[in-house]
Design a protein that fits this description.
The protein is mostly helical. It has 21 helices and nine strands. The strands form four sheets. Strands 3-4-7 form a three-stranded antiparallel beta sheet.
């Protein structure tokens, strides 16, 4: 048997370090066994998936040296490798399940679904909806079909008591209560599959032998195992890795820790050090070495050495390891080349100098003036964001709204950024100057800097967003209760 593994990220945002972590372990496992590592793009969420985000996935994994044997950009014998290009395949398999009695057409509306869940909740039952909850009488189905109502295809699942036993490489036998498993949607009303159908079909057709993924998918394993049984296919070996954690043991999230791979690239981390650090997330070399290369990890890789305790992704420890790589593995020539490639290059100067030329009197003025554009962390003082109380709260709201606005911004050109910020200012009934004032401090640490859109374009999306999150934190942060209120207010702007 040829070992085949895959990583299947969704191109819906910044490339996550969790994706790189999964890619690393899947690649090492496959190559350690002389097999293939596949990159597949899960872009069935058409509203959020973008070509720009897909390109960032390619860029981030290649920067880390985590290349793949088959994928959308290089092809392979089992493509296409974008799920959006495989819609006809999924539809055929979904209807096959319907014809075999393993799935059903569901015409239930969102309001009906909410009412059904509420009824189960009031009865003290699980809110997992079962086929008997969802299947309409035949005459009602006929009426809705004739009216052209939207429908989805859902899978049949066991009702009543009992457990599903799932085998896992690291965890042994996992028992999960069938009562918590809902009649999962397989094919959405737009004709595209959900994760559950697409991954089972793709993993089978692409001959994936081992599915190595995060532990958040454990609860979905019964659905997947059931689908394999329905189709009569052999199920790949499952292995659920522990999730990366913040230092406070919470799930790694961008609110508490920078999570974009490209943020670390922009900050000046070495890709070798980042891979090395990810390799230490719940795994260790046989000799317990702290510093090792990708090649050394792959040569020594044994997945049974994975620890199930939630590995902590600590940026300070990553900085220490990165410093070790700089001191021990780079010659002065190497270091000079890395610095040049990182930020001290003609392309960066060409972007900075048009703004600097009119402001400097001697060449040495450039360094303190433009330092914020190439710095990683900058010093921020809460007092710079206004007085405590209503003024500070207004500032936090503005910063949060700008952050949300920029999190969905794909075009990172100067003009596009200005247009987005101007639209936000108009929607908030603010003059651009009033919206920009706290942004100068958040991005540069000072009340004076180059223009905000130009600064953002030079800093790039990852560093810009990270600095905005840091500024919000310095100003006192936003509570969960406040976030919900602000989300409603932001949505009401109709941007």
């Amino acid at each position: 048997m040829t070992v085949r593994t895959r990583v299947a990220p969704s191109p819906t945002g910044d490339p996550h370090v969790g994706t790189a972590y999964m890619a690393l372990f899947n690649r090492c496992f496959a190559h350690a066994h002389g097999g293939q590592f596949v990159l597949r793009i899960e872009d069935t969420d058409q509203a959020r998936s973008t070509p720009e985000a897909e390109a960032k996935i390619f860029e981030s994994l290649r920067w880390l040296g985590l290349d793949w044997d088959e994928g959308p950009d290089i092809g392979g014998p089992m493509g296409p490798y974008r799920q959006s290009e495989r819609a006809d395949i999924y539809s055929g398999y979904a209807w096959q399940l319907v014809e075999a009695g393993h799935a059903f057409v569901c015409y239930r509306t969102p309001d009906e679904l909410n009412a059904l869940r509420e009824a189960r909740r009031e009865a003290g039952q699980s809110t997992a909806l079962k086929p008997t909850d969802l299947i309409l009488p035949e005459d009602e189905q006929a009426v809705r079909k004739a009216a052209g109502d939207d429908y989805v295809i859902r899978m049949m699942v066991p009702e009543g008591e009992g457990v599903c036993a799932v085998e896992d490489m690291l965890r042994g036998t996992i028992e999960l209560d069938w009562g918590m498993v809902d009649a999962q949607i397989l094919l959405k009303s737009d004709g595209l599959p959900t994760y559950h159908l697409a991954n089972v079909v793709d993993d089978h057709l692409m001959e994936i032998t081992h599915v190595i993924r995060g532990e958040e998918w454990i609860n979905s394993a019964p659905k997947h195992q059931l689908l394999y049984e329905y189709f009569g296919w052999e199920m790949p070996v499952l292995c659920h890795l522990p999730l990366l954690r913040n230092p406070d043991k919470s799930k790694l999230s961008k609110r508490k820790n920078p999570t974009s791979v490209l943020y670390y690239q922009r900050m000046g981390f070495l890709p070798e050090a980042v891979v090395n650090y990810l390799g230490r997330m719940g795994w260790s070399m046989p000799d317990e070495a702290e510093k090792f290369t990708l090649e050394e990890m792959q040569a020594a890789f044994d997945i049974s050495r994975v620890s199930l305790g939630g590995p902590v992704f600590d940026v300070e420890k990553l900085k220490w390891l990165n410093g070790l790589w700089i001191r021990e593995s780079l010659s002065l020539d190497d270091l000079a080349r890395r610095l040049r490639d990182w930020a001290l290059n003609r392309e960066m100067l060409d972007r900075i100098l048009p703004h600097a030329q009119g402001r400097i009197e001697v060449l040495s003025d450039l360094i303190p003036q433009a330092a914020y554009l190439v710095s990683g962390d900058i010093t921020l003082d809460a007092a710079s964001f206004g007085r405590e109380g209503e003024e500070r709260e207004q500032t936090v709201m503005q910063l949060q709204f700008v952050l949300w606005c920029l999190e969905r911004q794909q075009d990172w050109s100067r003009d596009a950024l200005f247009a987005a910020l101007k639209a936000l200012a108009d929607a908030m009934a603010l003059k651009p100057k009033a919206l920009f004032a706290p942004l100068f401090v958040a991005l540069s640490g000072d009340k004076v800097a180059y223009s905000i859109p130009d600064s953002m374009a030079i800093l790039g999306p990852d560093l810009t967003r990270a600095r905005l999150r840091r500024a919000i934190e310095v100003c006192g942060g936003v509570s969960k209760k406040a976030v919900k209120r602000l989300e409603k207010e932001f949505a009401a702007l109709n941007l």
